[in-house]
Specification:
8 helices, alpha/beta, 234 residues, globular, seven-stranded mixed β-sheet, 15% strand
Length: 234
Amino acid sequence: MTKYLKQQESINIDKDLFEKYKFSVDQLMELAGQSCAFAIACTYTSLKSSAQKILVCCGPGNNGGDGLVCARHLKQFGYTPEIYYPKRTSNTLYENLLHQCIENDIPLLENDLEEFTSKRLRDFGLIVDALFGFSFKPPVRETFIPIIHLLENTSIPICSIDIPSGWDVEGGPPTNGGIKPEMLVSLTAPKMCAKQFKGKYHFLGGRFVPKKLEIKYNLNLPEYLGTDLIVPLC
């Protein structure tokens, strides 16, 4: 059975990928974000031919970087993504990822979330949750409370990248509800909280784990078929 990771195990695996296997942050981010876009394209095929767009909500860390990459690949796949990015960072990597999205004519929404939601939320057929990753520890910072509240209450399907934002990495959703994504794309290996995922689609993405690392951590990952970038977990 595929292993579900605790928070420290996830941190240790990332550390090994960087230090032992010499992956760079941007390299892993590109592979992860591309696999998330691939999962969306395989599942939400009707959005490509409809007038509805995809809202990609990005945070300031690596999960947000995955979201920016995902948005760019969705655009290349023929979808219409728009980015909500409430807290930008001056880190060159993220500035470059955002620049690539802008140069691909992906709109960057203003940070006035209240005005945006009241006027335009119905334009979207899917929301990508790329706010917080496995390093998140509650509580949610004030900057992100409005967007988390929106995601908790919307009827629009949500695809969460690696961790549903606001969930405890091991304990799962908060006691007062939390985000309920329709799709979860776990990266590298699923995290403990994914055992409480009750949506329709759970994929493993990020096809980059060396076999020696898989054996070291007893991950027992499922086999990817052919050249697929994702594999279903449920």
